[in-house]
């Protein structure tokens, strides 16, 4: 190739091989120079990964510091259907605004705002001000657009994207970006419909050059506590493993049991058509957007998709579990009144219940048998095992039940304890770290999980948080959603053909009725 025809993105992925081929400059000199540059926040533009940030709501703003402080990354564009507004929902009324003020070094930034900020113009301002404050000689600007595809068309040398949008947009955006050769960081889930999520898995798996990362992997930590649980189980501390339980207090957002009937005007600067994406057109209502999207079958994937990936992905990984082959569910009922003032049970096919529980049968990959996995949310949880020190289990947690006892831990597998007569006998067995701690920070300030992805972008290694490694847990959760939509019916699933085998109508629910123009 002629030098002028090599893009900077191509340079990034070939530079390691190129340095290995040249012997004029010793490798230790190159390493020392790059290390010193990163320590001072100075990374050559040719060494930086240019990134487009898709989704500029509250969670995107909360997480952006991790990207901004990484010397190897430069955010060059932001995309969101919302231009700028102060009607977002968050965990505190002033926390996000105060975080922004601290990040950009302006204690008096927008002192008179009423409400919670968000939108692409806010993120554009934050990124530009942070770089001017923290990067010497930064004279760049951040492009912005409603539609991420517009930026991918105009910013020709974008290497990667981070997707921080509502669940229903994840698969479309990830597939479009990977099709264009972009590396991808994305939040859970890979998709809120089975067929979409599995397409994301297939494309990521087929690519040998793209680095992908699903952020729920960050909760793996160093794997020590899950390793200890696995060692106890393998040693027979609780006999033969029969069931795994995981429970949470989610949802912690309003859950609407009926479709809104009042009409609301689309806010100024908000592209409702673009926000809907592949979903079918419906009237705008703020009950669908900003935090509450996860409660709707069309837009979200329920409480299990909000928290279950953090807690159970490492369990699937350590226990070598395959995708579920069956699922049944139960859930809370909402009671309303008929027009004649008689009570009725509201059973719908459009929103998740206030509380639900799934019962999955999950086989081991080595075909040695299966285990029952039970998820509980909305205040539901299993009874405490015999011998547990308290009368009741905590509001969130995890439990492994065997024929001879149980292991109880925190929600993210922290502080596991053996419950039962064998506790002392196996107390000497401890866990060891199985991976470098995902919570670590590298010497140059980059979060370790992000460095793992960066290494993948540069062709050094396959990131353990890659999309394809989340296949089984994503496939299992997607099946659970369909069981709820079928009024709790037990569904039989064949992972080989990716079909529900005992209910044709349920099988159709694995796929979205995609709006024209948004086909995947």
Describe the structure.
The protein is an alpha/beta fold and 520 residues long. Helix content is 30%, strand content 16%. The protein has helices spanning 8-21, 27-39, 58-68, 95-104, 120-134, 148-154, 170-179, 194-206, 224-235, 272-276, 302-319, 448-457, 471-485, 504-508, and strands at residues 49-54, 73-79, 143-145, 160-163, 183-186, 212-214, 241-247, 326-331, 334-337, 343-346, 356-363, 370-377, 397-402, 405-409, 417-419, 491-494, 499-500. A nine-stranded mixed β-sheet has the order 15-14-13-7-12-11-8-16-17. Strands 3-2-1-4-5-6 form a six-stranded parallel β-sheet, sandwiched between helices. It has a two-stranded antiparallel sheet with strand order 9-10. A hairpin with a 5-residue loop joins strand 9 (334-337) and strand 10 (343-346). Helix 3 (58-68) runs parallel beside helix 4 (95-104), helix 8 (194-206) packs antiparallel against helix 13 and helix 11 packs antiparallel against helix 13. The radius of gyration is 24 Å and the shape is globular.
């Amino acid at each position: 190739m002629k030098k002028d025809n090599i893009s900077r993105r191509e340079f990034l992925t070939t530079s390691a091989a190129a340095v290995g081929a040249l012997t004029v400059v010793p490798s230790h000199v190159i390493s020392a120079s790059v290390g010193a540059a990163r320590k001072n926040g100075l990374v050559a533009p040719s060494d930086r990964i240019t990134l487009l940030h898709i989704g500029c709501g509250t969670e995107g703003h909360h997480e952006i510091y991790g990207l901004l402080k990484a010397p190897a990354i430069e955010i060059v564009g932001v995309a969101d259907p919302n231009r700028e507004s102060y009607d977002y929902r968050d965990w505190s009324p002033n926390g996000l605004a105060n975080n922004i003020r601290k990040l950009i070094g302006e204690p008096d930034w927008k002192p008179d705002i009423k409400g919670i900020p968000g939108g692409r113009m806010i993120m554009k301002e934050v990124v530009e001000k942070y770089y001017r404050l923290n990067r010497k000689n930064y004279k760049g600007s951040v492009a912005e657009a409603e539609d991420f595809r517009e930026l991918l068309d105009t910013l020709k040398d974008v290497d990667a994207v981070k997707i921080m949008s509502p669940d229903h947009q994840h698969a479309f955006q990830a597939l479009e970006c990977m099709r264009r050769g972009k590396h991808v960081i994305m939040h859970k889930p890979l998709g809120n419909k089975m067929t979409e999520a599995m397409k994301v898995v297939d494309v990521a798996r087929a690519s040998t050059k793209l680095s992908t990362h699903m952020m729920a992997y960050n909760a793996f930590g160093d794997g020590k506590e899950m390793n200890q649980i696995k060692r106890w189980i393998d040693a027979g501390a609780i006999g033969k493993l029969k069931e795994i339980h995981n429970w949470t207090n989610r949802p912690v957002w309003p859950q609407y049991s009926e479709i809104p009937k009042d009409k609301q005007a689309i806010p100024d600067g908000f592209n409702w058509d673009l926000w809907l994406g592949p979903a079918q057109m419906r009237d705008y209502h703020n009950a669908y957007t900003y935090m509450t999207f996860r409660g709707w079958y069309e837009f979200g994937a329920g409480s299990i998709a909000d928290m279950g990936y953090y807690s159970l992905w490492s369990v699937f990984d350590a226990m070598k579990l395959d995708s579920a082959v069956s699922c049944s569910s139960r859930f809370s009922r909402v009671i309303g009144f008929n027009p004649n003032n008689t009570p009725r049970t509201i059973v719908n096919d459009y929103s998740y219940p206030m509380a639900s529980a799934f019962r999955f049968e999950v086989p081991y990959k080595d075909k040695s048998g299966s285990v029952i996995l039970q998820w509980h949310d909305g205040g539901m949880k299993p009874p405490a095992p015999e011998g547990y020190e308290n009368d009741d289990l905590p509001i969130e947690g995890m439990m492994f039940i065997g024929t001879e006892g149980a292991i109880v831990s925190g929600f993210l597998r922290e502080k596991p304890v053996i419950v039962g007569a064998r506790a002392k006998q196996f107390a000497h067995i401890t866990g060891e770290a199985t991976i470098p701690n995902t919570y670590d920070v590298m010497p140059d300030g980059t979060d370790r999980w992000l460095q793992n992805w960066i290494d993948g972008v540069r062709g050094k290694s396959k990131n353990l948080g890659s999309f394809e490694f989340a296949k089984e847990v994503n496939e299992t959760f997607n099946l659970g959603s369909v069981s709820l939509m079928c009024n709790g019916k037990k569904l039989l699933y064949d992972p080989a053909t990716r079909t529900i085998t005992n209910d044709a109508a349920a099988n159709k629910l694995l796929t979205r009725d995609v709006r024209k123009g948004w086909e995947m």
